[in-house]
Structure formats: C-alpha cells, structure tokens
Specification:
Elements: E1 31-34, E2 37-40, E3 44-47, E4 52-55, E5 62-64, E6 68-70, H1 78-88, H2 97-101, E7 129-136, E8 139-147, E9 152-157, E10 167-169
Length: 176
C-alpha cells in the first residue's frame, strides 16, 4: 500500500482555555505540565495548542495512578472503536487525522510520540497504528491512521484492527 506522507506542519488554533476534567473541576493540585501537555491524575492530558483533552491510555488499557496505563492496547475495527467511544460518554470520540497527527513529536522516533504523556505505545509487526475517523480523499473506503512508531500517516479499510486513543474538546462541559 502506498504511504501517505503529511507535508509540513498542521495548523491549529491556539485557544486560551482552561481544561475541564472528567469530574468537571479545574484542580491545579492534581495537574502537572509535561512538554506542552497538562496531565492530571485521572489519566487525561490537556493540549492547550489544540484545546483538546486526550485519554493518556489507549482503548483496552486503563489509567492507574502510580502505575500508568495497565493492560494492553486493544486492536479494534473503526466501527468498534467508535462504538466504544460512544459508550465512554462525556464527549469522548475517535479523533480526526489532524487531531491525531498533532500528537506526533517529530523530535522523537520509535515511537514518534511523547511516551511520558502517552506511555502505552506498543510496537507490533505493523508498527503502532491508531485510527482516525477521516476518510482518504478520493478513496472513501480508506480511513487515515497514524503509525506512532514512525510518525507516518497511511490509510486502511475500516475492518482492519488498529489501536485507538480517545479525545474530546476542552470547551464542552462533561456534566452536560
């Protein structure tokens, strides 16, 4: 399959917003900054560059204070990942390709992501591919994904089993 290369940096608006965590609070005592991310003890990472809150653990693993992500990332079809995101509630969803690619750290390789913030990246024979919900233009049967081992973008059909990381907007109130 042809590799899809993302040329140049993706543009994101920088919004001045305070993250609302899963419990609806903005507790500074439970937060710390790692690179550009603000992480909390609930296993979430706020990115002020994109105004998004990410789950630090891949689907299939759970955050445990003091231990990080426990378990192994699940391999899911895109449909199964989207269903699990809806089940998680509170606005969690599978990210777009631009959102997902914003996690790629071009100064890192193998993996090409900050593993202090996202500690459960596991390499397989296929790399570490994670779903987005964005179809490849002109090839609607293919959906973009990011391989976090190489930082490359490619496309797969929805039935392939890949990992997924959930995201939500920091602007919404999860209590609504």
């Amino acid at each position: 399959m042809k590799k899809w290369t993302v040329l140049g940096p993706l543009l994101f608006s920088c919004l001045n917003a305070n993250p609302l965590w899963a419990d609806g609070t903005q507790s500074q005592a439970q937060e710390r900054t790692i690179d550009r991310f603000v992480v909390n003890q609930a296993g979430e990472a706020f990115d002020p560059k994109t105004n998004l809150i990410w789950r630090r653990c891949s689907m299939g693993t759970t955050w445990q204070a003091g231990s990080g992500c426990v378990g192994s990332p699940a391999s899911l079809s895109l449909e199964a990942a989207q269903h699990a995101a809806r089940q998680a509630g509170e606005g969690w969803r599978v990210p777009t390709i631009d959102e997902l690619y914003s996690l790629v750290d071009e100064d890192r390789e193998n993996p090409a992501i900050n593993t202090t913030v996202f500690p459960d990246i596991t390499a397989t024979s296929e790399g570490a591919p994670y779903w987005s919900v964005t179809p490849v233009q002109g090839m609607p049967r293919l959906i973009f994904f990011v391989d976090f081992m190489s930082g490359q973008v490619d496309g797969h059909t929805q039935g392939f089993a890949l990992a997924a990381r959930l995201v939500r907007s920091a602007e919404q109130n999860p209590q609504n």
